[in-house]
Amino acid sequence: MKHPSSILLFAFLPTLLSAQDPNLVPSAVRDRIIQEGKQNSQVAKHLDELTNGIGPRLTGSPQAIRAAYWAKDKFQSFGIENAHVEKWSDWKVGFERGPWSGEITSPKSAAQNLHFVTRAWSAGTKGRQEGPVLLLPKTLEEAKARPDLYKGAWILGRLGGRRRFSPKTRKLKDFLKTQGVLGFIAPSRNQLLITSGNFRISWEKRPTLPEVTLRVDEFNKLKDLVQKGEKPRVLFDIRNHFIQGPIPNFNVVADIVGTEKPDEYVIVGGHLDSWDGATGTTDNGTGTATTLEAARILMASGVRPKRSIRFMLWTGEEQGLMGSRAYVKKHRSDGLLDRVSAVLVHDGGTNYCAGLQATPSQLPILRKALSGIDKVDPQYEFEVSPLRFFVGGSDHASFVSAKVPGFFWLQKGRANYTHTHHTQYDTYDAAIDPYQRQSATVIALSALAIANLDKLLPRTSRAEIARLTGGNRRRRFRLGIEFAEGVLVSRVQKGSPAEASGIKKGDLFLRIGKNKVEEPRDIMLGIFRAFQKGAKEVSLFVRRKGKETQLKLSLNFPRRRTRRPPTPKKRKMEPTRKPNKEPQ
Fold this sequence. Notes:
The chain contains 17 helices and 23 strands. It has helices spanning 6-11, 13-16, 27-39, 43-54, 62-77, 140-145, 167-178, 216-227, 281-300, 322-331, 363-369, 396-400, 417-420, 433-451, 462-469, 497-501, 520-532, and strands at 84-106, 112-113, 116-118, 128-135, 154-156, 183-187, 211-214, 233-256, 261-271, 307-314, 340-345, 352-358, 383-386, 406-408, 410-412, 473-475, 481-485, 488-492, 508-512, 515-516, 537-544, 547-554, 559-561. Strand 1 (84-106) and strand 2 (112-113) form a beta hairpin. Helix 3 (27-39) runs antiparallel to helix 14, helix 4 packs across helix 9 (281-300) and helix 9 crosses helix 14. The strands form 5 sheets. Strands 1, 2, 3, 4, 5, 6, 7, 8, 9, 10, 11 and 14 form a 12-stranded mixed sheet that branches. It folds into 3 domains: 6-82 and 257-471, Zn peptidases (Aminopeptidase); 95-242, Glucose Oxidase, domain 1 (3-Layer(bba) Sandwich), CATH 3.50.30; 474-561, Pdz3 Domain, CATH 2.30.42. By secondary structure, the chain is α/β, with parallel strands linked by helices.
């Protein structure tokens, strides 16, 4: 996307932004913020240092600790001298991922490098380990029938999903371990290699054998070679390292202190940690970089907000919002949370910040406070819209649970977040710098405007948010589709929304609305976005028998009611006894 001349854009700034409330952000300050954010941006530099200099930042890893101190130093370099790290936990076992590689070594006609990932907090190899590939036995009895077969072999088969935790699977794996297998190879769902992991392990019971998730096409190739009797061999070199704890985990905090109400806050932030299958760029290097850049922009612009603007970078988000939850828990009883006007969290990738959702009591206030932001750059949309669907899953939710107004930036743009989210493609080249500049500028302007409001934003309980969004009867975006590979439909469930829309077995998804579909998650994301906008239906485009076909999917999905415990049956009471007020 080409950008109009910056000279023309900035020449008309006073005219473009005249609608914004000058009592909250004076026009001269606003112009300096936009000039600094658009023309003097350092957001790409922050992201480069973080993702290419430090790399992935798994919570509990040396890189996460290094990143926390790096971010603290960055805030201080902007002139925020009070920037510091706050420890929120110690973990028993840390983890550091080193280089990893794999290849098919035999037969020579099939030789190639392999694309795979292992879970965080999982075992690596003992150096370079080569061995034959054998199919996973279907039963423990089958394995015991030929126990000498498995020593020094790589075992190929599906051990993921619910089967991984079943007693039968555990017994089979334990037996194969005793027979000296080198490790296990399972397939990915599609071409994306998604990283996850479980930090809840002890030093004494840490994993000992590698479990590889191999890209599905390469898994199928190996399986085909085995079934044809080609006797394939593979070599893996996986440098996974456990670190004996205690391992400290840190949040980063930096305040631009308010002039009139320094003990009241607007919090701006995102999570600093990432998974470690790539460099953690769009989840959430981009949000970290815009948080840093918003702080730099405001300091460089010489702002003096009425309330303090607190910049926070949390860790432990990928393990369940742990850093932000610890912060909220720490301050539940000291009154600080009651003095937080808003929490603005950027954690949706590299697309530009295009708006916020607000409750009915917040809506008119925020619309007035943030008016004119849609004119910062005419090619980028911005809107404060009524709350229709609560977006959880990031650190703002920790604050919302304590009745603090928490906001997750709605984002728009050409980037495909599902392609990079937790995958091997979450690298620096996925970031879109013009979007990052826009987001950092929007975040800076919004934080300042909210900090300068006469009063704190109205608070809304989680129960009220649930009522406004139907959260007590959550939407189930279940189409009733199964995919063979990629986005090729292999099965359509009878009576499902997919069947009602006309989707058939053999259809290949192309687009949902105007957005290209590459992975199944793209379909659900497209449905979610359409529902957010209040659409009643969405267009689906599939390839059927070589021709593109358009279908209409109704968004009137079934609702799932919150499960309630069954009401105990009242016992028939004796006439002489007084019945209990509550069932026993």
